Structure formats: structure tokens, C-alpha cells
User: What shape does this take?
Amino acid sequence: MKNLDDNFQLVVSLEPSAVSEAALIWARATALRDELPAPATGEEKVPGIKRRLDIEGSKLLIARRDETCVAFTLFAPRKKSLEIFYLAVDPDSWGSGVASTLLFGAEDYARGICRAALELWVIDDNERALNVYARFGFVDTEEAKVDESSGRIERRLVKQI
Assistant: This one.
């Protein structure tokens, strides 16, 4: 476990319990973002996380505070970059800086495996996420696509490191 500051510790884990914790965070965060009456169960989000974990070299980076999982990111190396598939913060920790902590962790990992950039796709109307990524130095590539599962427009962001 890597202790980044007094607030958060980062740990890479593929344990089923870590996947379940990440799925529950993803469910809670997306429900609040999308103004749903109730979050999906974590079990409904597990298959999407496992699908990305099946990519060669993928990592699940968990952020904990006081032994409680408060956020995660899931990424995998590409030829010249590190692609971030998920970055989610439990709504109770929104505004705490943990998203930036995870992005710094992903960037450090990318440097360690000699990747020159971070890249990700983000839902076009997710202003909270877009603001986080812009503050962290991501640039809009103007590439867009429709997400197959949600039908929502996503755009590709890149940060050179």
C-alpha cells in the first residue's frame, strides 16, 4: 500500500472484495450523476469492471481512507499510452481531492511503464468529470462516439506526460 498523504492510501488489487467495492462506488456515483432515484446494485456493475480487468496489463487502483474504499480507477496500457477506463469517487468523498490523487497514481504508473500519455473517454455532459480532467491537464481531442451500453455521447481526452 502506498501512503500518498494523510488522507488517502492507494493499493493495486484484483481481489474480489476490491472489485465489489469499486462496483458499489461506480453504482453510487453514476446514480447521483444521472439523478436516478436509487443506485444500481454493485453486482450490476461488476461485469463491466471485470471485462476491463480482462485486458492484458490492466490494474485496479483503489483509494482508501481509514481502511474504507472511497474511490478507484481502472486502467490498462496501450501501445503508447495508458488508457483509463473508470475513475469513480464515492459521492461522500466528492470534492476531497481523491480523484486527483488517483490520476497522479495513474500518471506515475504510466511513466513507470514508459507510456507518454494518459487517455480516456468521458461522457460529454459529465461536467464534474470534465472539470477534474481539465484541471489535471487533459485536452479534448474532438473525437466523439456513442457509448454502446448507455447511448450517450462520449469524447476522448488525452494528457501528454
Remarks:
- Residues 2-160 form a domain with the Aminopeptidase fold (CATH 3.40.630.30).
- The helical segments are 16-33, 42-53, 98-112, 127-135.
- DSSP finds four helices and eight strands in the chain.
- The mean pLDDT is 92.
